[in-house]
Amino acid sequence: MKNKLFKGIKYLCIALLLCLLYSFSVKKYDNYSGENYVQYWEENKNLFESVNQNENLTFRHLDSHLKTNDLFLYGEFHGIKETTQIDFELIKYFNKKAGMKIHLAEIDFSQAYFLNEYLKNGNEKLIDYVLNSWIIYHGHNNYDYKNKWIQIYKLNEINPENSQIKVYGIDKIQNIDVTKNHLKILLSKINLLSDFPKDENLFLEWVKDELPKLISSINLNSTNINYAIDIEHIRKNLIDYKTTTREDIMFLNFNDLYKRYNFEGQKIYGYFGEAHVLQKEMNNKKDFGALMQNQNSPVKNKTYTIISRYLDSYMDAPSKYLPFFLRSNKEHTKTGVSCDNTFSLYHFGISDLKNVTNKNTTTFFDINKPKSPYKKSLRLIKSTGLLSLISGMKITDKNTSTTDYAQGIILIRNSDWAEPMK
User: Partner of 69 at 20 to 30 A CA spacing, among 112, 191, 204, 336?
Assistant: First the structure.
């Protein structure tokens, strides 16, 4: 018995030693291979802006990119406080600098309707209604995600009407009940009432068979035409609900709204999870950002993507999706997130940014200048670790470089988690 225990301890120590050796080797190699990158930043300090976390970035490095791009995308790791604050600061920047009024969010058409109603009347229950139906569970009952919409409301209050921000939802339908509620409101506005089947499958059958009859019965005029177009948009999304991929629906919805609301020539800002904003396919799949480079995209070659990297930070993780030994007994669990952890998530090149920044700072790096070394490598995109494997962030095209995926990087050090409601 003692021999078996001794062997067990021996193998455990060997395994632990090998893990430590692996971690040391990866970081040592990354630091060595990143020496030229660190030198690049040290010689070009005018290409990044760093502030303490109680201060706001000016985003001055984006000024020149406003001239050549119409769509700006920011990708986050969900559940991190500093990211939600940067999101709103970007909204303010684009609104002030470029007159941006079009905000794309990782929500569906009906959720956007209720958030726009909040932006008109200030009823905060509408924010709760949307966030608690959101596919991003990190945002359920969360102060920081809610506060974003409150801040947009306040910004709209001081802006003239022609500069006020409106949110557009391009995502796949996230909550059938919210969509039903929106559809019922639209039908009532044109004096068409209908009882929907409660069962989801029966409701989708009703949409397929009965809703077109209701739409065809509408006597179109200048008063109700927008309601009718909204109903038809919902119908198409419900038809695609179980047959079309999420990213393809995002692309189709964006194109529809782009034409309907005449987005051409206007600046658009979108905030999504990181996977949705990368401009090259990952894991043999084209997400929304990559689809923006398709031939039939209205913003092909006019899209600028920003992503974040994190060091020694915390995130709000939905407890129900965590292993029992990691979760708290509450809806949300505070978990660590750092892009320099060789076992969970390690982004090659994270040492480049770490070596030129300080703790408790937020730093914007413009990585897309002509002489940028990131045009010749995959640093800050290529990753390893368990989370990298699970999330499917595998590079498909080895002949690409970092700037094919994103053109700006924000390094966030020592952020707290997005704070749940008490």
Answer: 112
